[in-house]
Amino acid sequence: MLLDDLRRRVGDDCLVTDTDVMESFAHDEAEWAPYGKPAVVVRARTAEDVQAVVQVCIEHQTPLIARGAGTGLSGAANAIDGCVILSLERMNKVLEVNPLERLAVVQPGVVNDHLRDHVAESGLWYPPDPASSPWSTIGGNLATNAGGMCCVKYGVTREYVLGMQLVTGTGELVRIGRRTAKGVAGYDLTGLMVGSEGTLGIATEITVRLRPLRAEEITVAGFFDTMVDAGKAVEAVAAAGLTPSALELVDRNCLKAVDDWRNMGLSVDANVVLLGRTDAPGDTGLAEAEQMVQCFTDAGATYAVRSEDSAEGDALFAARRMAYPALERLGPLLTEDVCVPKFQVPTMLGRIEEIGRRHDVLIATLAHAGDGNLHPMMLTAQGDEDQKRRSLAAFDEIIAAAIELGGTVTGEHGVGLLKLDGLAAEQAPEVLALYRAVKRALDPHNILNPGKGIVA
Amino acid sequence: MLLDDLRRRVGDDCLVTDTDVMESFAHDEAEWAPYGKPAVVVRARTAEDVQAVVQVCIEHQTPLIARGAGTGLSGAANAIDGCVILSLERMNKVLEVNPLERLAVVQPGVVNDHLRDHVAESGLWYPPDPASSPWSTIGGNLATNAGGMCCVKYGVTREYVLGMQLVTGTGELVRIGRRTAKGVAGYDLTGLMVGSEGTLGIATEITVRLRPLRAEEITVAGFFDTMVDAGKAVEAVAAAGLTPSALELVDRNCLKAVDDWRNMGLSVDANVVLLGRTDAPGDTGLAEAEQMVQCFTDAGATYAVRSEDSAEGDALFAARRMAYPALERLGPLLTEDVCVPKFQVPTMLGRIEEIGRRHDVLIATLAHAGDGNLHPMMLTAQGDEDQKRRSLAAFDEIIAAAIELGGTVTGEHGVGLLKLDGLAAEQAPEVLALYRAVKRALDPHNILNPGKGIVA
Fold it and tell me: Mind telling me which Pfam families this protein's record contains (chains A, B) (predicted)?
């Protein structure tokens, strides 16, 4: 019945029912997050396809889970038994790049790096740069309000989404938001949709704000003996009034995994590396870089240098970008995403180390340190159930520590399935009730990714 | 009964029932927007006062209209007969300024300029700068998502509100949002509250994001014979890839009103003046200023110059800031707030002139031109009913033209009462229905500023 109706509305060539193929659409990259067996995967080509799928799902009271590339890390795109998975990857066209208005209009399946390269030809820049940018889609970035490295200066996805065409929870195809630089007509539904993990509507066309291409970045690298020293350097950069265009932390475990994989010759004699960048033009950039070196040194760096050779800086940043896939090769990887106030970064980094030691878990840590957004990753051996249990215990303790230090359980990956308990621990019952009220208002049939993102 | 309950809950010294005093709290500065007679004005001192007032209004099914300084221009703060007006002006403390986290926590009644001055002592800057900044409050700025001059580079109020303490439509006192640099736990209720004109909740404490103080600005002034030429200069600045820190347009009528009032000796021999600013540091700023001069000249400026003397630039900007009060002295002033795409700025400026001529209405125009946000103001003589009728006709035609050119009916002043028809003309019925669904979800008793902001 469901399949017949879908076939009639969107055509047979959009449907996937092969069990093995469906399996590859049934989950994102969140380790150990549960997922079920979809009834069907629909590979939409048009907004009208998406609308038809929503309408059929309403008729059949069938849960609908939209997804982009499936690179999420929270389980938000995971299947529920009998659900419809709606893949938006085929809707991958850049429809407009407008240098004068500094915006682009894209379909949701456009890959983040593809958009960045495409608009660069017009002298423009799309800032949000999650580590998944070579694969993840703008639709998925919108659903998770994705962050990245340059967000410490330029903000996250929500700050770049001006408007969208959207299929609502009642199956209507509408436009929300704007193309103008400013606009305050009506409630900010656009911002509400960003980060809502496909639970309030499905974007079928997205208008993003762009910036002019910026000056070449200068990189500063600092080596530290301890996490706490590196954390103090992060605090010092903020206290000095600097706004780096990136301030990333990579620990020894991450660098070793990259070097073992790609043999990059990163002979880094440090337990922790901080990578700062500035894109301020001319002398201002040079001065900012020097100030960052000073902050690193004052905080106890064993070595701190402004990289004159942009290739060297690029190599270290490339290693940082490769850390996640390099670690993933080694076995199941449980990724944390807490975000704490900047003054708590040294304390939180210390707590993560202590939690790892106490549970005898190998934790590799990456961080958008300048934002206080930390990604400790619990590495386990495939099939080692005891290690898995200890990793999950460490995961929960890190969440609890972040809340205790005034932080949040998720800085940029989203709640999905993995952070539902964390969300309930972090926020007041009255606020959770407001989320449910919004959900009921915009998805009255409760078919859009039910059970994800907010506490039922 | 209502008064008794309020007296019991918040104390007699918070209540105002004198008819003349209440009249001064019964409306904002929107010309000719209707307003009624409040039953009482409550001057709250604490969040608990606000909560008590909301709870009493729920019990009595009485409309509740929160207000700051009443400088709004849309009628959003206007009284309904028998309503409770809740003034937040007494809640005017800056509770925290945190240079490391780059945030401040303020009560809603803090005046915008006061916050800016206060945080400057810590080397920090609160960007949103509506022309009302000497009087308007952060709570009111939040309710309207206020813009201003520097928004062309730095964005509007929504981009600076991290979180808030809030009394909900069901009378609960909760905290939403965050203090961390990033965070994606739960739906973006904070962004939703910003710009909702007191229809979804009442902020009792606001956490705002700050930036480091910036470099001294350089001013560029250009004189133009026609609106359309000035519009072309605006387009040229955007096309050149420049991001000025302000790009304001002031016409002869505005300058004359300021000069007549304050005798500033602004002997400007131009029909239209464009004022550009750059705050890029060092050589970059000088180069940007030169490029702006070139854009002005190429677009047909009769005179264009980079002001070496910052006092001269400041004087022209001061005149621009004084234009609104200077014009208000002359009689009823109906202020428009349309925003169009940048490429439509010359066309829209031409249309405004044509509409003024056709209806024989004197229109003075101010604009945040770099954003495409135009404020044509219809000047009338007190008591001239025919002129009033013609002004209102011009007002409606300007709105229609903005929609036709792909713009919005309100760039920064909000919908309030004056733009309800405009909102309905601009947006699809399905989108208006989404607003109503959100309103019902978060204000189920329909007591928070009913009839404003969205189309019932």
Answer: FAD-oxidase_C, FAD_binding_4
**Does residue B440 belong to any structural domain of this protein?**
no
How many domains does the structure of chain A reveal?
3
What distance lies between CA B175 and its chain's CA centroid? 25
Closest-approach residue (CA) in chain A for B422: A185
State the pLDDT confidence band at B267, using cuts at 50, 70 and 90.
low
- The runs of H, that is alpha helices, within A205-309 are 227-239, 252-262, 282-298
Which of A178, A182, A430 to mutate to test binding with chain B, by most B CBs within 10 Å of its CB?
A182
Q: How far apart are the first and last CA of chain A?
A: 29
Structure tokens at A174: 């509408």
Nearest to B185 among A147, A372, A426 (CB): A426
Same-domain check for residues A188 and A119: yes
Q: Are A64 and A57 in contact (CB under 8 A)?
A: yes
Q: Does A428 touch chain B (CB under 8 A)?
A: yes
Which residues on B lie below 8 Å from A155 (Cβ)? 159
Residues of chain B contacting residue A147, judged by C-beta atoms under 8 Å apart: 182
Task: Give the closest-approach CA distance of B192 to chain A in angstroms.
Answer: 5
Which of B339, B323, B161, B207 is CA-nearest to residue B258? B323
Task: Record the tokens describing residue A343, joined without a space.
Answer: 């003054």
Q: Does residue B204 carry a pLDDT above 90?
A: yes
Cβ contacts below 8 Å, chain A against chain B, sum to 257
A205 CB-near residues (< 8 Å, 6+ apart): A47, A95, A105, A106, A107, A108, A164, A165
Q: What is the pTM of this model?
A: 0.97
Mutate to test the interface with B, among A161, A167, A187 (most CBs of B within 10 A): A187
Are B197 and B76 spatial neighbours (Cβ–Cβ below 8 Å)?
yes
Token digits of residue A273: 């590396």
CB spacing of B100 vs A238 below 8 angstroms: yes
Locate the chain A residue with the closest alpha carbon to B239. Answer: A100
Residue B100 forms contact with A (CB below 8 Å): yes
* Among B59, B87, B115, residue at a domain's last position: B87
Rg (CA), chain A: 22
Kindly report, residue by residue over B121-155, the tens digit of the pLDDT: 999 999 999 999 999 999 999 999 999 999 999 99
Residues A409-428 have a mean pLDDT of 97
Q: Distance between CA B415 and CA B419 in Å, rounded? A: 5
DSSP string, A331-386: S-EEEP--B--GGGHHHHHHHHHHHHHHTT-EEEEEEEGGGTEEEEEEE--TT-HH
C-alpha distances (whole Å) from B398 to each of A186, A433, B292, B390 are: 19, 42, 29, 12
Long-range contacts of A355-364 (CB under 8 A, 24+ apart): A355/A394, A355/A397, A355/A398, A355/A401, A356/A394, A359/A390, A359/A391, A359/A393, A359/A394, A359/A397, A360/A390, A361/A387, A361/A390, A361/A391, A361/A394, A362/A253, A363/A253, A363/A394, A364/A251, A364/A253, A364/A254, A364/A257, A364/A323, A364/A327
How close is the nearest chain A Cα to the Cα of B146, in Å? Answer: 9
- Name the residue among A152, A192, A368 with its Cβ closest to that of B192: A192
Range of the domain at B363: 218-405
The model's pLDDT over A266-282, given as tens digits with 9 standing for 90+, comes to 667 789 999 999 999 88
CA nearest to B283 within chain A: A282
Question: Which CATH number is A314's domain given?
Answer: 3.40.462.10
Q: Say if residue A10 is in the same domain as residue A110.
A: no
Q: Within this chain, do residues A378 and A341 fall inside the same structural domain, yes or no?
A: yes
* Shortest CA distance from A183: residue in chain B: B411
pLDDT of residue B310: 63
Q: Are residues B197 and B234 in the same domain?
A: no
Does A354 reach chain B within 8 Å, measured CB to CB? no
Q: Is A431 on the interface with B (CB under 8 A)?
A: yes
